[in-house]
Amino acid sequence: MSVAAIEPESSTNGLLRAWRELDVPDGWRAEIIGEGISLMPPPKGKHNRIADLIQRQLYRVLASDCGIYQTLGIWIGMLDQLYVPDLVVMPVDLLDDGEDPYPADAALLVVEVTSKGNADTDRKTKLWGYAHAPVPLYLLVDRWSADGPSVTLYSEPSSGRYRSMVRVPFGKPIPLPEPFGLDLATDEFPAGD
User: Fold this and answer.
1) Mapped to the 3 state alphabet, what secondary structure does 72-106 carry?
2) Which residue intervals define the domain Putative restriction endonuclease in the entry (predicted)?
């Protein structure tokens, strides 16, 4: 599969050009959310630990033609939004043929790990955006849920909504369907800061 550079014909075109030209400090992420560019500071230790634990489990079952990326910009064309998920599983040939950002609908899975300051963005804005892309699987690791730390897998996107949702508390495995076919362990996920 080859990907041409994404050049939307919308008012966000200028934002996308600015995003590509930004000199973001190491570890920071720039995303187009709403009508502007948002900068996010580097995640803290427990956030990174969760991403590492997920990545290690995914690599055990991942096909050789796919990769897991931590700083990949993905474009949601119909919404003129650009997100940089904590983890994104994408076919490797896309990265050989394209230029950041990549089409979100080519992602097999996106993972967001909430931070205290952005939890609502991951729970609402990005949930809505990924469903519109449509990204087939959205894994939300919510360390700050009011009901306690949890992991939610959203699947079956249709008409801008996910039709299926499975939620488990930290400590319980969450099943990831094919192409992963994995019960993702969450028992080592640290909660809080």
Assistant:
1) CCEEEHHHCEEECCCEEEEEHHHHHHCCCCEEHHH
2) 22-185
